Amino acid sequence: MRARRTAVTFLLALGVIGSLSACESVQQANEAVNDASQALDKVTLCTEALALAGFTPDATDPQKALEETQKKAEELGALADKSADTTLREAIEGVSTTMEQVTLQDLSPSSIAEWSQEKLDRVARLTSACA
């Protein structure tokens, strides 16, 4: 009887240990899925942000260029709000701010090169954050 009780206790202990190992495996699998999901989210955000940041305003119609640039800036701002990655969010916000603060003067033939260079510098930071 005592041997049977010991055997049952042993088998129950093995079951508990097995259950704990299975729970740990499930938890590790969940963490792996979460990590993969965050990586996919980052790739998606980067793809969308770089596409928006690559917008080049048409300087032949400065008013339309201003409106379109500011619209792209709003879309970038919305993407930045979705990012859990601080570095990525700040990089997207940098491009968004540059585009949001554009003026008609910035888009004039005498100034567009300087503004474009500032935007390109921000896009380079965004590209780096996406790497």
Automatic annotation (TrEMBL):
It comes from the Bacteria. Residues 1-22 form the signal peptide. Keywords: Signal. This is Secreted protein.
